[in-house]
Amino acid sequence: MPVHPIRDVAHVGYVELLTPVLDESIRFFVDVLGMDEVERADGASYLRAFGDYERFTLKLTASDRSGVGTTGLRAASPEALQARVAAVAATPHGGEWSAGEPGRGDTYHFADPDGHPMALYFDSAPYEAPADRRPTLKNQPQKLGDRGVGVRRLDHVNFRCLDVDANCTFVRDVLGFRMSEQIVTDEGDRQLGAWLHVTQKSYDIAYGGLDKDGMPGRLHHVAYFVDNREYVLRAADIFLDAGAFIEVGPAKHTIQQTFFLYVYEPGGNRIEIISDTRLIFAPDHEPVTWTATERKRGQAWKTIMPQSWFDYATPADELPVEAGVR
Ligand SMILES: [Fe+2]
Questions:
Q1: Percentage of the chain with pLDDT > 90?
Q2: N or C, which terminus of the chain has less Cβ within 10 Å?
Q3: Ligand 1 geometric centre to CA of 15 (Å)
Q4: For residue 256, how far is its CA from the centre of ligand 1 (angstroms)?
């Protein structure tokens, strides 16, 4: 751990999801999750939740498979961007600059040790709502969502990986993430999962090492936040009526205590709707460690997760049986 915490990464700015059914995925995020599409270009759609201050937080890209594309990290300043780029470039995981996504400035692309594409940028044009989306109060980016679930903001991304420790060490030492919670084997010799943050939220990214297929670079889920549990419960009813595959929830996680609901978008990627994000204010917070045996008792209220939640990650050859055949 560095003596002085690195505060160069401000937050996760966007996540790119790959989908083999772009139009269906767009309809899900717009009509069911209630997000707004702000731009469509070159086989990609850019979407935002009503509380996101940047122009978009989700990029949907047409692909022959599901999975995660680039996870964009906004730096805290131009100097912070240069410092983190220099740190990444000094590792075997260095990358290259590009012109950036719409509304974003020059962006440095690289990958974590497991191969998940990542990007660092600073310049970001704030979202300016069109006339029909302009809010009454000037301290919010746009009017509240008026369709579907009405998610407020991007919350976190959860990756599958082959070696949790290698990825956790990389994002801690090179990017400045701080670990808030982890799962280790009963012997304590190996990390099985890690939750890391750069904001006061207790996690912004997470790594799980339970990838049964041994495939690197996969996604477990992307999470969007709603204000309270009632909205999560309502989201479950909305998914039910929309015919979306609800995998598990609503219920409460043990780790981080987040209230959760998991659903699959039409492209096959798992999406989590959450409330009750835990905040960490202590500058000297020590990671909370759970053993594999402790995790076997299930989630906070003893909810036992279905096997698909442990096994399924994208890209995947098949959806879980319960999700039906596309
Ligand atoms: Fe999550």
A1: 88
A2: N
A3: 14
A4: 9
71 to 14, 57, 161: CA distances (angstroms): 6, 10, 15
Query: What are the beta bridge partners of residue 126?
Result: 54
Nearest to 276 by CA among 254, 295, 252, 300: 252
pLDDT of residue 26: 98
Residue 165 host element (H or E): helix 164-173
CB atoms within 10 A of CB 245: 18
Strands 219-225 and 153-160, by their bridges, are: antiparallel
Q: Which of 36, 216, 65, 235 minimizes the C-alpha distance to 129?
A: 36
* 4 CA to centre of ligand 1 in angstroms: 28
**Residue for token pair 């310049």:** 123
272 CA → ligand 1 middle, Å: 6
In the reported structure, the alpha carbon of residue 31 is separated from the centroid of ligand 1 by a whole-number distance in angstroms of 22
Distance 157 CA to ligand 1 centre (A): 7
Considering only residues 32 and 319, tell me which one the structure prediction assigns the higher pLDDT.
32
Q: Cis ω on the peptide bond leading into residue 20 (within 30° of 0)?
A: no
Which DSSP string do the residues of 71-140 spell out, in sequence order? EEEEESSHHHHHHHHHHHHTSTT--EEE--STTB--EEEEE-TT--EEEEE--BPBP---GGG--SSTTS
Would you state the pLDDT for residue 233? 98
- Provide φ and ψ at 169, rounded to 5°: -65, -40
How do 96-98 and 153-160 pair as beta strands?
unpaired
Phi first, then psi: give them for residue 242, nearest 5 degrees.
Answer: -80, -5
pLDDT at 145 > cutoff 90: no
Alpha carbon of 309 to ligand 1 centroid (Å): 11
Please state the φ and ψ torsions of residue 94, each to the nearest 5 degrees: -65, 160
Q: What is the pLDDT of residue 66?
A: 96
Full-model pTM? 0.96
User: How many other C-beta atoms can be found within 10 angstroms of the C-beta atom of residue 60?
Assistant: 28
